[in-house]
Amino acid sequence: MTNSANHHRLRFLLILGTLSATGPLSIDLYLPALPQMVSQFHTTTAMMQLSITACLLGLAVGQLISGPLSDHYGRRMPLFAGFIVFGLASLAIAFTHSVSLLIGLRFIQGLAGAAGQVLSRAVARDLFSGKALTQFYALLNSVNGLFPIIAPIIGGYMIKFVPWTGIFILLGAIGLLLAGLILLGIPETLKPEHRLTGPVFQSFLSFGTLLKQPGFFGELLITGVVYGSLFSYIAASTFIYQQLFHLSAQSFSLIYALNGLGIVIGSALPGRLTGVSTYRQLISGLGFCIVDSVALLLGAYLQWRLVTIATLIFLLVIGVGLLLTLTTAIIMGKTSENAGGASALIGLSQNAFGGISSPLVGLFGTSSLAPMAGLVLVYNLIAGGVAYHIHHQNR
Known about the structure:
Belongs to the major facilitator superfamily. Bcr/CmlA family. One of its GO terms (molecular function) is xenobiotic transmembrane transporter activity. This is Bcr/CflA family efflux transporter. It comes from Secundilactobacillus collinoides. This protein is mainly alpha-helical. It has a single domain (3-393), classed as MFS general substrate transporter like domains (Growth Hormone, Chain: A). Helix content is 81%, strand content 0%. It is built from 15 helices and no strands. Helix 1 (3-19) packs antiparallel against helix 6 and helix 6 packs antiparallel against helix 14 (339-363). The two termini are 39 Å apart.
C-alpha cells in the first residue's frame, strides 16, 4: 500500500473506532461524577445506576432499528442522523434537574448513539471477510478500547473544575462533531445492488433467518454474558474503588483507565494469534476468565488488598477484550447481505446483559466486592458451557 493509502486507512479506522465507542463515551466519561450526581439529585445509588441501564437499553433497542434500516438504505445516513440526535440529547441532559427526566434522556441518548456501535461493525463486514475481518475487528476494538482509558481521566479531572453538567455538554459537542466527520470521512460501503429490497419491514425479518443458523443464538448468548461481566465491573467500580478502598475520584479514574488499557491489549490479541482457530481461542479465553473470577470472588471474602484485587480485575478485562473481539468476528463472519441485522443482534445481546447487570450489582449492595465478583463468575460459567457445547456440536 502507498503512504497515501495507509494514511487514508488509518483515518478511516480512527473515525470508525470513535463512532463505535458510543458506549464508553456515554458511560465512562461520567462514571467519576456518579457520587456527585447522587448527592445533587437527592436520590439513591441504585436510582442513579438506572441512568446507566437506560442508556444501555437505548443502545440495545436502537441497534435493532438502525441495523436493519442500514441493510435497506445504506450505512451512511443512519449514522449521520444517529449522531445528530445523540449530540442534542446529551446537551438536553446537561440542563435537566429531574432524575426521571435524566433517565429518559439517557435512553434517547443510547437509542441514537446505537447507530455508531451497530454500523461500525456492519461497515467492517462490508469491506472484509475471514481472517482479515478478525484482524480488522481486533484493530477496531483496540481503538474503541482507548476510550475507557481517556474518558474516566477526562471525567475525573473535569469534575474538579466544573459540575457534572459540563461532562454532558462535552458529550453533546462530541456527538455533533462526529456527525460532521461522518459526512466528510465515511464513504457509503453498502452498494445499492447489495442492499435488501422490498418493503422496509422485510429488513427486520432478517433476524429470524439469522437466528436459524446453527450455533448463532448460542454465540449471541456468549457475547452478551461476556459484555454483562464487563458492565458488572463498570457499574460497581466507582463505588468499590472510591468507597470500599477510599480512592479519590482522580485516583479512581487513573486505575479505571489502566483497565481500559487491558481491554486494548485483549482486543489486539486475536489479530496476532492467526495460527489458532477462533473457537480454540474463545474456549481458552473463557477458561482464563473463569479462573480469574473465582480468584476475585475468593479475594472479596478474604478481603485482599487493593493491589491484588486491581491486578485480578486488570487480567479480567484483558480476557473480556479478547472474547468480545472473537465473538464479534465469529458472528459477523456468518453474514453477507444482512450484516446490519447481525450486528444489531450482537448489540441487543450485549447491551441487554449490560443493562440488567448494573441494577443487579446495585441490588446486592456496593459495600463489598462479592456481588460483582459473583455475577462475573456466573456469566463466565454460562459462556464457557455454551461455547463448549457449540464447539463439540461442530466437531
